[in-house]
Design brief:
4 helices, globular, Glutaredoxin, five-stranded mixed sheet
């Protein structure tokens, strides 16, 4: 499964109305740690195909959603289930930590 591009405009449909749990990577092109975690997010999109939706939201282009969820540091990964925010991961963390938290909602 490809990574879903999340925007302020499609956030409601892609995240809050999703039947699957959703992991969103809040990132920016200029962010070094975001580049470090990007391959992990790409791997998860393949590994969790059909079990979870994996998306990326560019904070520079989608400030409304970033502000709403209090994203002040990137990368920030937010995990949603049933339209509710259930977990937050801040920083470039090991893949095992992301998998551990994602597994709790699947």
């Amino acid at each position: 499964m490809a990574i879903t591009v999340i925007t302020d405009d499609n956030f409601q449909d892609e995240v809050l109305n999703s039947d699957l749990p959703v992991l969103i990577d809040f990132w920016a092109i200029w962010c070094g740690p975001c580049k470090m975690i990007a391959p992990i997010v790409e791997d998860l999109a393949t590994e969790y195909d059909g079990k979870a939706k994996i998306g990326k939201l560019d904070v520079d282009s989608n400030q409304q959603t970033s502000i709403k969820y209090g994203v002040r540091s990137i990368p920030t990964l937010l995990i949603f289930k049933g339209g509710e925010l259930v977990d937050t991961i801040i920083g470039a963390v090991p893949k095992t930590k992301v998998v551990e938290k994602l597994e709790l909602v699947i």
